[in-house]
Model the fold of this input.
Amino acid sequence: MTSTKTTPDGVLLLHGIARRATSLGRMERAFGAAGYRTLNIDYPARTAAIQDLIEGIVPSVSAFGREVAQLHIVTHSMGGLLARGLIARHRPGRLGRVVMLGPPNLGSEIADRLGGLWAYRRFFGPAGAQLVTRQDETLLALLGQVDYPLGIIAGDRSLTPLESWLKLLPKPHDGRVAVARTRLGGMTDHVTLPATHALMMNHRLVIDEALHFVRFGRFARGTQSSR
Done:
């Protein structure tokens, strides 16, 4: 009896600026249980600029891409910008679908307001300085245009009342990124869920929607808000 071995699809996971790969552990396990191979990369998000972070992950991503049928990408926060730059500069040969959770695609007002402070620069490093809403031409060229299936999940809950009292962000927002600034021209679908920026990657609804988009190229709830 002859057995047929099918090469599975792969999912690349890219974490946010103040996180490690372990922050996407629950998301990684959900995709693994659904039959996908996963690559959850750690990178020094707080000590390098976005362009250098992208170049640093290329070897691992290229090797992983050769081992899977299609390469899908799921990101949290600034990981979405890395995914955009990776695709623009080193596009995988069998690129699948991309899902971004709370991405600062149009920057964040928090970087605008706090970026001049020593403590912000010390903690978030060169990449943090690039998250302002007035994006320069060099960064825009690096990130490229969207010509791939892209689903974006935004959150509209703050973790603490302080985030609302400071009024650093226009509502609705997830405590770090305004919903309006997650959007991106060329995206396939967008959904806003009752999740906070810091914890959205662990939210059951967010995980379910990420899985749904990778499988079907759309969200189950589709272009709508939780409000």
Observations:
- The helical segments are 25-33, 50-65, 79-90, 109-114, 118-129, 137-143, 161-165, 204-216.
- Residues 10 and 112 are 36 Å apart (CA to CA).
